[in-house]
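[stage:ingest] chain + small molecule (LMJFFPRB)
[stage:ingest] validated
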Amino acid sequence: MSVHVSQSAHKIQLWRRLGSVQYRDSSLLQRQHLSSFSSKADRNDDLVTLEASPDTGVATLRMHRSPANSLSMEMMQSISGAIRKAESDRKIQSLILTSSLPSGIFSAGLELTELYQPDLARLPKFWESFQQLYLDLYGSRLSTIASIGGPAPAAGCMLSLSCDYRIMTDNPKCTIGLNESQLGIVAPPWLAQQYIDVIGNRNAELALLLGTLFTPQQALTVGLVDELVCSGDSSIDEMAQRKAAEFIRIPPKARVAAKELTRGTQIAKLSGNREEDTEFFCSFVTTDTVQKTLGSYLEMLAKRKK
Ligand SMILES: CCCCCCCCCC/C=C/CC(=O)SCCNC(=O)CCNC(=O)[C@H](O)C(C)(C)COP(=O)(O)OP(=O)(O)OC[C@H]1O[C@@H](n2cnc3c(N)ncnc32)[C@H](O)[C@@H]1OP(=O)(O)O
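[stage:predict] done
[stage:export] tokens:
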């Protein structure tokens, strides 16, 4: 245990050195004019909707944090809360995770304004909410199906990786993957491990290095999604319902035990390492180097839109 801790301390030092100077306050960084990236806290009450159907045993969790379902702290807490609510209803055995945004975007990943020039008091709580969301979704007793009707980069991909089954719209404009390296950051180890588990070591290695965003066809080929639905076909919801019914036919105890077999170790690993993981994240993301790269990435997103 002590060896493990000292190795991690070494890793933190390494990240700090890579970032050259540790970020202390926003004046250390050149403030850039990014007016569309200014929001931080949002209201908890209208970010997701949970629709439970005791007759079918299926609940549908719809995300609708405009414009892109990016994951602010409140958004992650809302999703976690909805998962727990569905789990507390013993009649519910399956959960479909989907977006109800008109754009179809599944989730744009972590809310970038939480990472760029962050509120230092909020940052650890933000990361803990991300860890908690992973633990709640990946470790859920429910069978979980991601119905992905639009782009799912980075933590948006994590949401789908944490489900048991992934159905995606076959539209080449909708891409999915862990693109963190393109932002000058890396996925945390528990997220990288999910990727490795789902698409295999070599595919994950290349994709993590390059920050690959896969088209739906490519995602199907590497096993990142399980099924595709023709673009514009409204049957993605029906397919998700059908899949949910298929999972429900398996006796719940056996289904939950089978899930525990493949996920238990990773869940226990993060559960026992949350503080250290948070400390590492906070010291990494606040380095000057990472902050500058994030600032440029945000500018690129804003310019691309114009
Ligand atoms: C031991 C521990 C070690 C820890 C070490 C780890 C350290 C760091 C880990 C950090 C992990 C990060 C994971 C992440 O999730 S980072 C976020 C990555 N997300 C992205 O790169 C996605 C960026 N967005 C897009 O590519 C596109 O927006 C889209 C999702 C493909 C949609 O494209 P589309 O053309 O339809 O729409 P727009 O681009 O016009 O976007 C619509 C509006 O949404 C805003 N937006 C988009 N993404 C985000 C985001 N992630 N955060 C905040 N806002 C976002 C965009 O600006 C538009 O806003 P506007 O309409 O107001 O202009």
